[in-house]
Amino acid sequence: MHEDNDRTMKVCTLDENPAADHALRLRAEEILQVRSVTGQTAHSAEESQRLVHELQVHQLELEMQNTELRQTRGEVERVLEMYADLYEFAPVGYLTLDLDRTIRDANITGAAFLGIERSRLIGIHFELFVAAEIRPTLIDFLVKVFLSSTKESCELALGAEGDAPRFVQIEAVACKSEHKCRVVLIDITQRRQLEEQLERQQAELLTANIELEAFNYTVSHDLLTPLTALQGYSQILRDLPGDQLRESAKDYLQEIDEAAQRMSRLIASLLTFSKVAHSKICREKVDLGGMAKAIVDKLEKTLPKRRVTFKFADRMTCEGDADLLGIVLGNLIGNAWKYTGQQKETIIELGQLVRDGVATFFVKDNGPGFAMADAEKLFIPFQQLPGEVADGHGIGLATVQRIIQRHGGRVWAESTPGKGATFYFTLQEAERS
């Protein structure tokens, strides 16, 4: 029984290498033929023993070869497993698309980029994972890939409408023999965010430079004018004879006082404008209606005979810094009061509406208005519109814009010449569609 098992093992081992088995069989047949021709039988036992020995040697050789093959196969499987892991868990996404842009294969990272389980991903058209408005761009790119013999690349945002976009760099190359293309998705969201942040910082720097230039002009011109007046009138007072000083002194002193007041107001405006860029935002619930009423009460006391109608919506509240929002309403309502001074009856309205899903507040007046071509100039420091005669330094609306931007919102104006103006502001950005 033991010998049968050994024989079976030998036969099975030899069968693993048919070529060696066949060679041994031929050799054995040749020896048998020689025996039959010469009639030598005296050494049959010895020949049989030698044949068995040769068979055993070949068996050992085959076993050694089988061991080497198993080792080689194990090494190949280990390498394949390593590369499979590198493919599956690579920091970039891999996709395989056919001619009609259907996904045929994807690694785990690629499926994660697309926001869907890999088992559900196969068979879906790749363009369905981008917003509808940029699908033509993606389709044109993939057509170019299949027509090209080199690697092509582009950048776009993955994610359907309403989803947070993931910006990716797509690199693709066509496999002509298989009528497919291999796609690599590289996540560049962080890079794009840094680029956008850099663009914002550059815009802020440009704005700061514009403001600095305007400030320099103000210091060199607007502040210099009242100072010159002070110096000039003081010199005149010093040069007057003693008997004339009493008669003219009051007029000159009045001019000096007015010039000093103008300079004081300008300096106060500059200080406010500077402070709002660095002051800490303390958010709380703010009653804009009550705040506006207090502002209006002060304005009415300055000109109690003026015919003014104020309209305020009920329950206008928001979240923000009360002190800074007081500056916003003070400037907007103050401007409406100032620019409607020539009207027979002034109407100023403070209201609230919803635009693009965001609470929007507005201050509306029935003043002379302005041309929309000049609307952007309103918020540039120290700028005045063509033909503007109202007293001011051009800092108020720039201060309003800076405060609103610090709250995360925006401010803009709409007007028609001769039909009043409306200033809108929000305290948060509208959601992107």
Q: Brief description of this entry?
A:
This protein is of the alpha+beta class. It is built from twelve helices and twelve strands. The protein folds into four domains: 86 residues; 95 residues, Beta-Lactamase (2-Layer Sandwich); 53 residues, no CATH class; 153 residues, Heat Shock Protein 90 (2-Layer Sandwich), CATH 3.30.565.
What does this structure look like?
The model is unreliable at 1-15 (pLDDT under 50). Strands 2-1-5-4-3 form a five-stranded antiparallel β-sheet, with helices on both faces. Helices cover 54% and strands 18% of the residues. It has helices at 2-15, 18-38, 44-88, 108-114, 118-121, 135-147, 189-222, 224-239, 242-275, 288-302, 322-339, 396-406, and strands at 93-98, 103-106, 152-158, 166-175, 180-187, 283-287, 308-312, 317-321, 346-355, 358-365, 411-415, 421-426. Helix 8 packs antiparallel against helix 9, helix 10 (288-302) crosses helix 11 (322-339) and helix 11 packs antiparallel against helix 12 (396-406). It is built from twelve helices and twelve strands. By secondary structure, it is α+β, with helices and mostly antiparallel strands. It folds into four domains: 2-87; 93-187, 2-Layer Sandwich (Beta-Lactamase), CATH 3.30.450.20; 223-275, no CATH class; 281-433, Heat Shock Protein 90. It is elongated. The protein starts with a helix and ends in a 7-residue tail after the last strand.
